[in-house]
Write a structure and sequence with these properties.
The structure holds 2 protein chains of 2 kinds. Chain A has 12 helices and 12 strands. Chain A is α/β, with parallel strands linked by helices. Chain A has a domain of 78 residues. In chain A, strand 4 and strand 5 form a beta hairpin. Chain A starts with 5 loop residues before the first strand and ends in a 7-residue tail after the last strand. By secondary structure, chain B is α/β, with parallel strands linked by helices. Chain B folds into 2 domains: 214 residues, P-loop containing nucleotide triphosphate hydrolases (Rossmann fold); 86 residues, no CATH class. Chain B has 13 helices and 12 strands. In chain B, helix 4 packs across helix 5 and helix 11 packs parallel to helix 13. The longest helix of chain B has 18 residues. Classes of the chains: A alpha/beta, B alpha/beta. Chains A and B meet through helix 7, helix 8, helix 10 and helix 11 of A and helix 8, helix 9, helix 10 and helix 11 of B.
């Protein structure tokens, strides 16, 4: 995609286990294994999957926090994988990250004004009173008071701390904000405040989001498009309405069936389809489709040949030999 | 209706001089799943721990009765509680791996729960542990019995915890956020298992959760707590259809779900939960409630019946329906 804020091509991140005195080196753990995706300006891509599927590793690779084993990642046209220190700095001002636990993302000994202003100071964009003004504006943008700047993180609630982290992420006016489970550690009522804030900020500033989450109801609310990951691979991408309206991959269908809806009438009317089995070990993936060990449709073909993503007329791409069944 | 398995009556828990749980009453009948819901700090987990007298030292059981099949657990001494835990009432927690002994094969841990309460031989206990694994749908039970917790996934560890909790056939199972640490497909498996065991054995379940999706999935009745008090209680269907407390209504409206326009504004609850030391005489939700009037800030509302089994503690519950529509 030209003009894409994020362009990931065949990206792979493999971790090697080192051999030791009693253990020989094992097979590499394929955390991300041939992932391609793109995000347009102003778009929100939801990246969903269960723990261990590689969604956070992919998010880290986009910021150059873990090296790619193969493939390429471009942020706003700049290659991340071959970036030197300088261009990595530029990339990281174009792409910022918000993590799950705001308490762990903030230095407890740094006032929140200093934390939010630090990116501007480091990149030499503002200092002194100009810096204070910028910090005040950022605090206002996330719904906090400018005179909170001198306080320390412990003085704030979980939801307020996540606002502070978001303000810091916005300081450099990034084109892409990677939100890695940004509301998972928050209480339900606070979760809604942060989701509203993220939607408002995107309307005002037009940046893109890569919204990583295991929570399908949150992704349905905030994402324009959704990519579903399973054991390091993308098994389905589609627009939000197509994915939730007509999920094609059996794993997507199982995820949607398993996610309980907060409505007893609808939830209890849903057909019960409990997925058997557990995730295979990512160091020992089955040769064909990674989902074949748990899939109700799996055939010999699935167990021997890895399905490729194939495009459908409504814009969905699905990696399944039996998606039409 | 037969007598409830668990009947909590005006439970009061204190930390120092502050009441962190203030007048909690609830009951759980045979084969019933009652969800105790609320946000972090509302006192739901402490209430669950209080039932089995597992409260941390700082928390004092300051009043109320906890009747398990008619016997008051609130007045028991600790040695008789040890005989009750695991035999008459069991508890499972959020982190199954933290609840299991890492140095003991899981089969021994299941069998131990049985030998602690019944005079059975070790051999017999292991056979029963194996039966238990089969009954909760674990394939290859002989191999599993010999494994250590680190060899098992989180979902499998939670099944082992359920096996330990149920092997003596307790009348009551307390499940404190049993699926919060698990992935959604595994969560569905565990909830399915709990539902199935309740149907087969008639165990009463007190389910502590913050997840309204889990409540909608398996709870028969719901008790909503706010700042240590019961805000509302109703059947699950009625609570979601017609909440009568503004806190419940806003909580439900704040959850993104099918039928809400994507990227539309979700309802929020402004402010934060007041600390237990600052509670005045009025309704504890008043400072955050869009319906609050003078009376709410002065006088604490009692739980009032709205329909059979549906109670809410709100002076303005008649206006709550308008709140849902506005959100």
């Amino acid at each position: 995609m030209s003009g894409a804020v994020l362009d990931v091509r065949d990206a792979a991140v493999h971790f090697r286990s080192r051999g030791g005195f009693l253990r020989k080196a094992g097979a590499p753990l394929k955390a991300v294994d041939g992932v391609s995706l793109a995000i347009a300006p102003g778009e929100t891509l939801g990246l969903v999957g269960e723990s261990g599927c590689g969604k956070s590793t992919l998010a880290n690779a986009i910021l150059g926090l873990v090296p790619l084993t193969a493939g390429h990642i471009k942020v706003a046209g700049r290659l991340v994988d071959s970036a030197d220190r300088d261009s990595l700095g530029t990339i990281r001002s174009d792409a910022q990250m918000v993590f799950q636990d705001p308490a762990l993302s903030l230095n407890p000994r740094l006032s929140i004004g200093a934390a939010i202003g630090e990116p501007l100071l480091v990149r030499g964009l503002a200092r002194g009173s100009a810096l204070r003004d910028r910090v005040a504006l950022l605090l206002k943008a996330v719904g906090l008071e400018p005179d909170h700047a001198s306080r320390f993180p412990h003085a704030f609630s979980g939801g307020q701390r996540q606002r502070i982290v978001i303000a810091r992420a916005l300081a450099l006016q990034p084109k892409l904000v990677i939100c890695d489970e940004p509301v998972s550690a928050l209480d339900v009522s606070v979760r809604a405040q942060i989701l509203n804030l993220l939607v408002d900020l995107q309307r005002e500033r037009g940046m893109s989001y890569l919204f990583v989450s295991h929570d399908l109801s949150v992704v349905r609310h905030i994402a324009d498009r959704v990519a579903v990951m399973y054991l390091g691979r993308i098994v389905e991408t589609a627009s939000m309405s197509v994915l939730f309206g007509k999920p094609r991959h059996p794993y997507t269908q199982a995820l949607l069936a398993a996610a309980p809806e907060p409505d007893p009438v609808r939830q209890r009317a849903k057909p019960r389809r409990v997925l058997d089995g557990e995730l295979p070990s990512p160091t020992n993936l089955p040769p064909g489709c990674a989902f074949s060990t748990r899939c109700p449709l799996a055939s010999d073909l699935c167990r021997s040949e890895r399905p490729r993503l194939s495009a459908h007329p409504d814009g969905a791409s699905v990696a399944c030999h039996h998606a039409e069944e | 209706m037969t007598a409830p398995v668990l009947d909590i009556d005006r439970l009061r828990l204190e930390i120092g001089a502050a009441a962190v749980v203030d007048g909690l009453s609830l009951s759980v009948g045979q084969g019933e799943i009652v969800a105790l819901v609320g946000e972090s700090g509302c006192g739901k987990s402490l209430s669950a721990l209080a039932v089995l007298r597992l409260l941390p030292d700082a928390v004092r059981l300051a009043g109320g009765r906890i009747l398990l099949e008619g016997k008051d657990l609130a007045t028991r001494d600790m040695s008789s509680m040890a005989a009750i835990r695991g035999r008459d009432a069991s508890i499972i927690f959020q982190e199954p791996t933290a609840s299991l002994d890492p140095l003991m094969p899981v089969g021994d841990q299941i069998a131990e729960a049985l030998t602690a309460h019944r005079s059975v031989s070790a051999r017999e206990a292991m056979l029963r542990a194996r039966e238990m694994l089969v009954s909760i749908g674990i394939s290859d039970p002989d191999r599993r019995l010999a494994q250590y917790p680190f060899e098992l996934s989180g979902g499998m560890c939670q099944r082992i915890m359920i096996a330990i909790a149920l092997i003596c056939g307790p009348r009551l199972l307390i499940a404190d956020e049993p699926t919060t640490a698990l992935d959604v497909t595994i969560q569905a498996q565990i909830l399915h298992l709990i539902r199935q065991l309740v149907a087969e054995r008639g165990t009463a379940v007190l389910l502590i959760t913050h997840d309204m999706g889990v409540v909608a999935d398996i709870a028969d009745r719901v008790v909503v707590m706010y700042a240590g008090r019961v805000a509302e209680t109703a059947t699950a269907e009625e609570l979601f259809r017609a909440p009568r407390h503004p806190y419940t209504a806003l909580l439900l409206a704040s959850i993104p779900r099918a039928g809400i326009k994507p990227k539309s504004r979700l309802a929020t609850i402004e402010g934060t939960v007041p600390p237990p030391s600052s509670h005045g005489s009025g309704c504890r939700f008043a400072s955050r409630c869009p319906l609050a009037e003078d009376r709410c800030r002065i006088e604490s509302p009692p739980l009032v019946d709205h329909a059979p089994g549906h109670q809410a503690a709100c002076w303005r519950s008649g206006q709550v329906a308008t709140l849902g529509a506005a959100a």
